[in-house]
From TrEMBL:
Residues that span the membrane, as ranges: 21-38, 313-334
Boundaries of every Histidine kinase domain copy: 415-628
Official protein name in the record: C4-dicarboxylate transport sensor protein DctB
GO molecular function per UniProt: ATP binding; phosphorelay sensor kinase activity
Family matches, as PROSITE patterns: HIS_KIN
Membrane topology classification: Multi-pass membrane protein
Length: 639
């Protein structure tokens, strides 16, 4: 008998029941692999979706907060106007049209909806909308909380629907005093400013999410989707509905339930929801909520789960495809092994061993190559995502810098108003005198008055140019900057406050001009922030003194802003550059000024530091690279 006869026989095929068992095992493995991949993809996609929702919700809440608080000062400023107080003293004997037109001009300048004046009984006696059919004049608003708060001597705030216009708005009010020297003096009227909320909602509509705001009664009064507005987040009881109707906050709106249903909690502060009715009933959402303590509101964001479902399907299909490829490869390999065993049944053991090693090496190389390609793809995706994130961060930072500049302009509004009112009053007086002199044929006197008017208009143009210079956006272009000229510009913005506060200025720098390399607009903003903080810190100081210094040290320029105020508490020194950290009273600032200033210095290659002086007061120092003096710099001017 041939000794190799056994090897010539073909391998026995598997029985039918074993083949069916293997087919069942492979099918169950496919289903399990696809299900597990879908679950992992769902968790990852939900986690990414929540991170995006938290960032969008935080920025939207900060935007709404800043939008409303920038009007907080307006009723207080208007309440001190002489024209308002004079008309309130005797409204029956005066023509209300000059005051109506004045309020309308302030409404247009400030960009608010309405400005109106209430007497002590809550009746509207003057309003910016005196010429409209739905004017507030003659209406009584004594039932509104903004009236009761202000007539009691405080500052009032209120949100709701207007009685006449039925427009949603936020109201700021302030008492008007004709005599505030008496210990038992009472306010004689209330000045009210109404701000519409449509602009904020229009910005929300651009986001890939649904945003809405609810009050303490869970009423949706602001929403990116118009059909959600004036709905109740959850169904109201009869007692709640009667209570809301009594306040007339939302007029006679039906306050229909929104139909929201909580499907499952996800993580702390988030949950998966859907809507049983309404415009959002066609999809499921990830819901996050953020409290706005300044107004007692809740801001909600709804992110559609469509990307999560898509990620699940893609992951399941990819896992199934990979599983199929692996299974098919295993089957083909098994068949090849059978054929090879049949062809090489008579070969020596060494050849079989060599062939097996070669096959294993090929599989290993293929697997490593596939892993390397996948790793390269993931690395490319991560690089691209980081590039997009850096671009978004730069854009957000520039928007915060511009918002901080506008906030500073708001704080300077009272002083600038005083700066402009003085020349205006003088121009009117000179113009009236010139008319009388011309009537008397005293032309030399009239010419002198006209010359004074020209000088005053030039002074007002300088003030307007300073505001345009400070409010423009940065070009992010590096250039040589004169330190002394930059400091002088920043001081010009505070001329009124310096004079009124009787603040002495000490300038400590060399006679030659010091140059630094940086961005002119952003360096101006940092100096304005530091000088404004120093002036605020010196309120109440008997002899306020502001020291501004600049000198070179080791190829660097050191700029210092020093005050003689109370200084910075030691426990706050480590946190003053943190975002939203502030020691000011609520409504006086967001705590972003020093944080943005520090970030600007980092971008310019410099550094911003804060210390306390041994003799009292705080010192802020700016360190920037010194720029060598060139012929172009010597002949340039500070624009």
């Amino acid at each position: 008998m041939n000794s190799t006869g056994v090897n010539n026989q073909s391998p026995t095929p598997l029985p039918l029941r074993w083949r069916r068992l293997w087919l069942l095992v492979i099918s169950l493995g496919l289903l399990f692999c696809m299900w597990q991949a879908a679950q992992l993809a769902r968790e990852q996609a939900l986690s990414n979706l929540q991170d995006d929702a938290e960032n969008e919700l935080r920025l939207s809440a900060a935007n709404l907060n800043g939008y409303l608080l920038r009007y907080d000062y307006l009723p207080q400023m208007l309440a001190t106007r002489e024209g308002v107080q004079r008309f309130l003293a005797s409204p029956d004997s005066q023509d209300p049209m000059p005051l109506n037109m004045l309020l309308d001009r302030f409404r247009f300048t400030a960009g608010v909806s309405d400005v109106y004046l209430l007497n002590r009984d809550g009746d509207t006696i003057a309003a910016s909308n005196w010429h409209r059919p739905n004017t507030f004049i003659g209406q009584n608003y004594a039932f509104r909380s903004y009236y009761t708060d202000a007539i009691a001597g405080g500052q009032g705030r209120f949100f709701g629907l207007g009685i006449k216009s039925l427009e949603r708005g936020y109201y700021f009010s302030s008492p008007v005093w004709l005599d505030d020297t008496s210990p038992d003096a009472q306010p004689d009227g209330v000045l009210v400013v109404k701000v519409l909320l449509d602009d904020v909602e229009e910005s929300w509509a651009e986001q890939d999410a649904e945003l809405f705001v609810t009050d303490s009664d869970d009423i949706i009064f602001m929403a990116s989707h118009p059909e959600l507005r004036m709905n109740a987040l959850y169904p109201l009881t009869d007692e709640q509905r009667q209570s809301l109707r009594a306040t007339r906050r939302y007029a006679m709106e039906p306050l229909t339930p929104s139909g929201i249903e909580v499907n499952a909690p996800y993580r702390q502060g988030s949950q998966l929801v859907s809507f049983s009715q309404g415009p959002l009933s066609s999809s499921d959402y990830l819901s996050l909520t953020r409290h706005i303590p300044e107004f007692g509101w809740q801001m909600h964001i709804l992110k559609p789960l469509t990307p999560v479902i898509s990620a699940q399907w893609i992951a399941a299909l990819m896992a199934g495809g990979l599983y199929g490829v692996v299974t098919l490869g295993a089957g083909i390999g098994w068949q090849r092994l059978r054929l090879r065993r049949e062809r090489e049944a008579f070969a020596e053991r060494e050849r079989n061993t060599l062939a097996r090693v070669r096959d294993e090496l090929e599989v290993s190389v293929e697997r490593r190559t596939r892993d390397l390609v996948a790793s390269n793809q993931r690395l490319s995706d991560e690089i691209e995502e980081r590039r997009r994130a850096e671009a978004n961060l730069r854009q957000t930072q520039d928007e915060l810098i511009q918002a901080a500049k506008l906030a500073v302009l708001g704080q300077l509004a009272a002083g600038i108003n005083h700066e402009l009112n003085q020349p205006l009053a003088a121009i009117r007086a000179y113009a009236e005198n010139a008319r009388r002199f011309m009537a008397l044929a005293r032309h030399e006197k009239a010419d002198a008055n006209l010359e004074q008017i020209v000088e005053l208009t030039e002074r007002m143009a300088d003030i307007s140019a300073q505001l345009r210079q400070f409010s423009r956006k940065s070009s992010e272009r590096q250039e040589a900057i004169s330190v002394q000229a930059c400091i002088d510009y920043a001081l010009r913005l505070f001329q009124s406050r310096l004079r009124e506060g009787n603040i002495s200025i000490i300038q400590d720098w060399p006679n030659e001009t010091l140059w630094v390399q940086g961005d002119l607009v952003r360096l101006e903003q940092v100096l304005v922030n530091l000088i404004g903080n120093a002036l605020q810190a010196m309120k109440g100081v008997p002899v306020p003194q502001l020291t501004l210094g600049a000198h070179t040290q080791h190829q660097q320029v050191i700029i210092s802003v020093t005050d003689n105020g109370p200084g910075i508490p030691e426990e706050h020194l480590g946190h003053i550059f943190d975002p939203f950290f502030t020691t000011k009273a609520p409504g006086s600032g967001l705590g972003l000024g020093l944080s943005i200033s520090s970030r600007i210095m980092d971008d310019l290659g410099g550094k911003l530091q804060a210390t306390n002086q041994p003799e009292g007061g705080a010192r802020f120092t700016i360190t920037l690279p010194h720029s060598p003096i060139t012929h172009t710099q010597e002949n340039s001017s500070y624009a």
